[in-house]
Write a structure and sequence with these properties.
Elements lengths: L6 H21 L8 E3 L8 E6 L20 E7 L2 E10 H6 L1 H25 L9 E3 L7 H13 L6 E5 L1 H8 L12 H4 L7 E5 L2 E5 L9 E6 L4 E16 L6 E14 L5 E6 L3
Parallel strand pairs: 1-10, 5-12, 6-8
Antiparallel strand pairs: 2-3, 4-11, 6-9, 7-8, 9-12, 10-11
Helix pairs in contact: 1-3
């Protein structure tokens, strides 16, 4: 036999698709780099974390015999992993007649879909942050809102620096105000990192980013948060597995993309909601 459409003939294309998808996924997703991450498990088991009762500090004298105080853990939250997937089918005719186009299209779109899925899941948690809420539906965010959100998180002992992630339109309204805009700084380390494409400026211990994966609207929910406010638990990173299907459309290759992760609020009081229009 000769001229078989084997995986060997497809392997270079598949590798390019995988590389392109992974790169594109990272370009579509900012939030995983700003929140608490776990990547220490492969199972489907729910992750449970605890909080502890705190003691009190009292004045003691030389004669004081201090009594032990309770330090008891209690379940504070859970993360349940979910597998997400999508698949494309590239026929032999498509591959043989336009291989580089197939590579570019499939790689870019698989990466975009998965990157947006992770990022939008995390930004969707902004409305679950309980540290405080600033701004109003239909209104535009102000620098007073920014300072108040920062004060909320500091009052809850959230460690800085803080990330402030908002839609591009919200950032536009913020910096185009006719007055009250502070002198913004540029953090060159962030600007030159993988976050650089999302980073806009820094001010008063806050790093600002824009993210189009936040749901738009007259009451779009942006957020300011310390890293531990939100958690991402990746059980299986983005994976693309090729599978030969000879009976379909005269033969071709399925590209099966999957990812498995859990996301949720971890320290919700260390994050504040910023409500404002993105119209």
């Amino acid at each position: 036999m000769a001229n078989e459409s084997s995986y060997t003939s497809m392997s270079g294309l598949v590798n390019s698709i995988i590389d392109t998808a992974l790169l594109t996924a990272s370009e579509q997703s900012i939030m995983p780099m700003l929140v608490k991450n776990w990547n220490d498990g492969l199972t489907s088991a729910t992750r449970i974390w605890a909080s502890y009762t705190g003691g009190t500090v009292a004045t003691v004298t030389e004669a004081t015999d201090m009594a032990a105080q309770t330090f008891t853990p209690a379940a504070a939250g859970t993360l349940t992993p979910v597998r997400y997937g999508t698949a494309y089918f590239l026929t032999d005719d498509r591959i043989n007649s336009d291989p580089f186009g197939a590579q570019q299209d499939a790689g870019l779109d698989l990466g975009r879909l998965m990157g947006v899925k992770v990022d939008s899941t995390l930004t969707g948690l902004f409305s679950s942050l309980t540290g405080g809420t600033v701004g109003t539906a239909g209104g535009t965010l102000t620098w007073q809102n920014i300072q108040r959100a920062s004060a909320y998180i500091k009052a809850a002992y959230g460690p800085g620096p803080y990330a402030c992630v908002m839609r591009p339109e919200q950032w536009y309204y913020l910096v185009s105000a006719t007055s009250g805009v502070p002198t913004l700084m540029q953090n060159s380390a962030i600007a030159n990192s993988v976050l650089g494409g999302f980073y806009t400026a820094s001010f008063a211990g806050i790093d600002f980013y824009t993210d189009s994966n936040i749901t738009s609207g007259t009451a779009a929910v942006a957020a300011m948060f310390a890293a531990d406010a939100i958690g991402l638990d990746v059980r299986q990173p983005l994976r693309i597995e090729p599978q030969r299907d000879a009976s379909r459309s005269g033969g071709g290759w399925e590209l099966n993309a999957t990812i498995k992760f859990a996301a949720g609020v971890y320290r919700p009081t260390w994050g504040a909601q910023l409500i404002g229009t993105s119209a």
